[in-house]
Amino acid sequence: MAWLQPQDAFDPDQHPQRVLGIAAQLGRHDSGMHRHGRAQLLFARRGCIHITLADQLCLLPPTRAAWIPAGVTHRAQMQGIVDYRSLYFDPDQCQGLLQQVQVLEVGELLAALLERIAQADLATDWSKGSGPHLVALCLDEIARARREPTLLPLPKDRRLAGLDMALLPPALGVLASQVGASPKTLGRIFQRETGMGYQQWRQQWRLLKAIERLAAGDRHSAIADALGFASDSAFVAFFKQMTGLSPLAYLGA
């Protein structure tokens, strides 16, 4: 069984097998910025994982998985206890698969395949017996999985370097006065550097923060108040519009 303890060091690039899987439970863990020579599928069975990339933030909610292509520099941070599974694939097995970091919905079949590979011994040769079929099915399920809207591109303009990502971003007019730029200029910066208008970007930030707080067990009223919604119902309506699900259904999906 490839079950890692908190004190264990693990480098997937040091193992000869073309497919690897691990299982672990960690709390208050920070991987630091790093990258692998292999593609990674990181599945949060319980708890949230914050993934920082060069130009975006990613929230990995419970019961979802993040696909991280080979060679992508990233940092994984866990505040509370996170029960996770991680699979690693040689890049030549993933040609034509997802080329960018994506957060994916994990259905029953993909979850079962993840568990089967993650719980196997690290020395397992997945090129023998039923191994190739299981790996091929797993990669096919990854390719078919629905994408989740939990990525937030980051602006690079130096005037926005002081924007505190832990706090609710201010209204556009307030931000403009803080950084000394006109609202129109800021709007153009966000559109150019994130692909979103400022209000759309701000709503995406609210969604990520809402999911994080829901996973932590916060009440709707507390989340609505913290994120600037007029009422619980306004928050629920926003969440449904952004995800297609109610907050309760999203965590139970």
Description:
- The structure is a single chain.
- By secondary structure, this protein is α+β, with helices and mostly antiparallel strands.
- The chain has two domains: 3-144, Regulatory protein AraC (Jelly Rolls), CATH 2.60.120.280; 154-252, Homeodomain-like (Arc Repressor Mutant, subunit A).
- 35% of the residues lie in helices and 23% in strands.
- The chain is built from eight helices and nine strands.
- Strands 1, 2, 3, 4, 5, 6, 7, 8 and 9 form a nine-stranded mixed β-sheet that branches.
- β4 and β5 (56-60) form a beta hairpin.
- The longest helix is centred in the last third of the chain and has 18 residues, at 198-215.
- The protein is globular.
- The model has no long low-confidence stretch (mean pLDDT 92).
- Pfam families: AraC_binding (PF02311), HTH_18 (PF12833).
- This is HTH araC/xylS-type domain-containing protein.
- It comes from Gallaecimonas xiamenensis 3-C-1.
- Residues 172-253 form the HTH araC/xylS-type domain.
- Keywords: DNA-binding, Transcription, Transcription regulation.
Question: What is the strand and helix layout of this fold?
Answer:
Layout: E1 3-4, E2 19-30, E3 39-46, E4 49-52, E5 56-60, E6 64-68, E7 75-89, E8 102-105, H1 108-118, H2 131-144, E9 151-153, H3 172-179, H4 183-194, H5 198-215, H6 220-226, H7 232-243, H8 247-252
Parallel strand pairs: 1-2
Antiparallel strand pairs: 2-7, 3-6, 3-7, 4-5, 4-7, 5-9, 6-8
Helix pairs in contact: 1-2, 6-7
